[in-house]
Amino acid sequence: MPPATKPRRVLLVCMGNICRSPTAEAVLRAKATLASLMVEFDSAGTENYHIGEPPDQRSIEHARRRGYELGLLRARQICAEDFAAFDLILAADTINLAALRLLCPSSRHDRLHLLLGDQALPDPYYGGSDGFEKVLDMVEKRADYLISQWVRGN
Question: How many Cα atoms sit within 13 Å of 52 on the Cβ side?
Answer without folding.
Answer: 0
